[in-house]
Design goal:
By secondary structure, the protein is an alpha+beta fold. It folds into 3 domains: about 100 residues, Rossmann fold; about 70 residues, Dna Ligase, domain 1 (2-Layer Sandwich); about 240 residues, ATP-grasp fold, B domain (D-amino Acid Aminotransferase, Chain A, domain 1, 2-Layer Sandwich). The protein is built from 15 helices and 22 strands. A hairpin with a 5-residue loop joins strand 9 and strand 10. It starts with a strand and ends with a helix.
Length: about 450
């Protein structure tokens, strides 16, 4: 097994990976910016290296600084977590050239799947259902108009290199199309350095359901159930649950097998997530594949009992998967709420500042993945996540009740949070019944105005 791993990330996911390393007897190296000097991940790792000033381009996105830190500390592998460099094919390629193992898929898989339009083509060729739309990136406004007419409005204009809800525009009529394409291209260029876009049919109020897969370098691929991520605001996930309230065992099997086919088609190994949209007829369509560990991975771990982060490390080292598909059983129900430092009543404005007091809930079936502590200062440089609150119970109703009291006990003072907003959502009859979709939160927020 690896003796030392560098974690090219920060916050709760860096802490999560450090803990996995400890369980495997591996020394960990944290990297941090000057703004994160007092961060938890930098304090609990076996070693910590400052890689630059607060701006992400000068620190967590600084490929040469991260690689040099690994070489200087003798780290044999780098775990990128999620975000930052986790889906950067150039970074994965440079790790390989430097003799460092990238804990993730090959750079070739990242390249193939990182371009959303090209990934869609690959999946269609593999026989996986895809959302109707352009075959690859659109090359002109005239081509875009023709594709949109064929699909029927509304359509979505989406950045080929997109992620995290960036570079997506809904278009309801042809006279809006050109302007929305230009705006999507500009946003894509700013965030991803790539202004290519593609078009797909907009499915009205579907569910966003994703399948977690794990694959080893020996060609074994398994799926670990699904997560329902339909509770979204501006394409950003707020709350997730596993399993999905709308997925039957038969649908789960079909989606899981399609996900496995997707991975095999790409020669994929390590953790990955295939995201689908499921319509009112329970037909599902490939949307994209995330070639990394997901923010919401803990709910899959809770329901399957399978440690995804430790498996990532073992697979990267060359070990075969320790379980087969028939070993994966879903037990109970799990829900995750993302606790952010933001003010929902002020359009979710970020709320940087110092945490004066902190009390987190505990007890059976309660998990906190976080990286904050009393006296910790949340800076304005990075995302506003405080922690992830995860509950696991024997069934969905019990999980909902457990999340209600866990949110009620969660105390953070000194910064604004979305805890009360999450409690509001979890009490809504639409959520309790499972009768919600991608558009629910938008409709709900509009109704409150």
């Amino acid at each position: 097994m690896f003796k030392k791993i560098l974690i090219a990330n920060r916050g709760e996911i860096a802490v999560r990976i450090i803990r996995a390393c400890r369980e495997l007897g591996i020394r960990s190296v944290a990297v941090y910016s000057t703004a994160d000097r007092k961060s938890l991940h930098a304090q609990i790792a076996d070693e910590a290296v400052c890689i630059g000033p607060p701006a992400t381009k000068d620190s967590y996105l600084n490929i040469s600084a991260v690689i040099q830190a690994a070489l200087n500390t003798g780290a044999e592998a780098i775990h990128p977590g999620f975000g930052f460099l986790s889906e950067n094919a150039d970074f994965a390629r440079l790790c390989e050239k430097s003799g460092i193992v990238f804990i993730g898929p090959s750079y070739k898989s990242i390249e193939m799947l990182g371009d959303k339009a090209a990934a869609k083509e690959t999946m269609a060729d593999a026989g996986v259902p895809v959302i109707p739309g352009s075959k690859g990136a659109v090359k002109s406004i005239d081509e875009a108009k023709e594709i949109a007419r064929r699909c029927g409005y509304p359509v979505l204009v989406k950045a080929s290199a997109g992620g995290g809800g960036r570079g997506i525009r809904r278009v309801d009529s042809e006279n809006e199309l050109e302007a929305q394409i230009i705006m999507a291209q500009q946003e894509a260029k700013n965030f991803f350095g790539d202004d290519t876009v593609y078009i797909e049919k907009f499915l009205v109020n579907p569910h966003h359901v994703e399948i977690q897969i794990m694959a080893d370098k020996q060609g074994n691929v398994i799926y670990l159930g699904e997560r329902d991520c339909s509770m979204q605001r501006r394409n950003q996930k707020i709350l997730e649950e596993c399993p999905s309230p709308i997925v039957s065992p038969e649908l789960r099997k079909r989606m899981g097998e399609a996900a496995v086919t997707s991975a095999r088609q790409c020669g994929y190994y390590n953790a990955g997530t295939i995201e689908f949209l499921v319509d009112e007829n329970r037909d599902f369509y490939f949307m994209e594949m995330n070639t990394r560990i997901q923010v919401e991975h803990p709910i899959t771990e809770e329901v399957t009992g399978f440690d995804l982060v430790k498996a990532q490390i073992e697979v990267a080292y060359g070990k075969p998967l320790s379980v087969k598909q028939e070993d994966i059983q879903l037990r109970g129900h799990a829900i995750e709420c993302r606790i952010n430092a933001e003010n929902p009543s002020q359009n979710f404005r970020p709320s940087p500042g110092t945490i004066d007091a902190l009390y987190v809930p505990g007890g059976p079936g309660i998990r906190i993945d976080g990286a904050v502590y009393q006296g910790y200062t949340i800076t304005p440089y990075y995302d506003s996540m405080i922690s992830k609150l995860i509950v696991h119970a024997s069934d969905r109703n019990e999980a909902i009740m457990k999340m209600r009291w866990a949110l009620s006990e969660f105390i953070v003072s000194g910064v604004d949070t979305n805890i009360d907003f999450q409690l509001e959502i979890i009490k809504r009859p639409e959520f309790i019944s499972g009768n919600y979709d991608n558009g629910f939160l938008t409709r709900y927020m509009e109704s409150k105005k």
